[in-house]
Design a protein that fits this description.
This protein is an alpha/beta fold and 257 residues long. The protein has helices spanning 14-23, 71-82, 103-106, 108-118, 141-154, 222-227, 246-251; strands at 2-6, 28-34, 53-57, 63-67, 89-95, 122-129, 163-170, 179-182, 187-198, 204-216, 230-237. It has a single domain, classed as 3-Layer(aba) Sandwich (Stationary-phase Survival Protein Sure Homolog, Chain: A), CATH 3.40.1210.10. α1 (14-23) crosses α5 (141-154).
């Protein structure tokens, strides 16, 4: 099995290295990741400028590829023929913070796995629920072990077309994680605020700031599973159609009269 590993935090991020170390045990591994951080970049595809690709070394000296493109560009480049043989599994991560609820629309980590699903290849995104005020190095080892175990199982099972898996791991020692929960997206609570400042010439500029998001820890959701000490696996689909609402809109009698 040929695995493509990417992320949205950049090729030198320790979460990528930890995951690469584990994934080599289950197949041939190619690492192709951005040359800089693309967090909260969403689903980006670069069409109006050329993309460069060059070699890089991970922390343990392993050879990797990097590009000035986005995470989804990394996947597109690989699946369009840059990497041979074509990868059969795309793994994105490990993101240092959880991707929950509506986060999936912003996340470069998740949308890299989405790019795989668009191409008909199994895609999984791995994120770690590191506490907001954590100090010191982040321990990615438990999440990397879990991601590898799950990847090995997932590749043996038929994932429906157009579906990707968003996996979030609680920040706990491996032996303290209670198991795996199949979940739905929870309700993320954003507390964004507009911060207005002025540059030295008195011209205004703006930051989108505010406190870190929280969430409603309902049982059965990704947020709830992490709060209960479980790994959350949420199946996401490419078809965003709100199917139950089609009869409602048809009943409105909308037209061009």
């Amino acid at each position: 099995m040929h695995i493509l590993l990417t992320n949205d935090d950049g090729v030198y991020h320790p979460g990528l290295s930890a995951l690469a170390y584990q994934l080599r045990s289950i197949g041939e591994l190619t690492v192709l990741a951005p040359d800089h951080n693309w967090s909260a970049s969403g689903h980006v595809k670069t069409l109006h400028r050329p993309l460069r690709v060059w070699e890089a070394d991970l922390a343990d000296g392993t050879k990797a590829l990097t590009t000035d493109g986005a995470p989804s560009d990394c996947v597109a480049l690989a699946l369009l023929g840059l990497v041979q043989p074509s990868p059969e599994l795309v793994v994105s991560g490990i993101n240092p913070h959880a991707n929950l609820g509506h986060d999936v629309t912003y996340s470069g980590t998740v949308t890299a796995a989405m790019e795989a699903a668009i191409a008909g290849v199994t895609g999984i995104a791995i994120s770690l629920d590191t506490p907001e005020h954590h100090e010191g190095p982040v321990d990615y080892a438990p999440a990397a072990v879990i991601a590898c175990r799950l990847a090995r199982q997932i590749t043996q099972l038929p994932l429906p077309e157009g579906v990707l898996l968003n996996i979030n791991v609680p920040y706990l020692p491996l032996n303290s994680i209670r198991g795996v929960a199949i979940t739905r997206q929870g309700l993320r609570v954003y507390r964004d605020a507009l911060v207005r400042r002025e540059d030295p010439r008195g011209r205004p500029y703006y930051w989108i700031g505010g406190e870190a998001p929280s969430g409603v820890a309902d049982h059965g959701t990704d947020i709830g599973a992490l709060a209960e000490g479980f790994v959350s696996i949420t199946p996401l689909q490419l078809d965003l159609t709100a199917l139950p609402e089609i009869p409602l809109l048809e009943g409105w009698g909308l037209g061009l009269d």
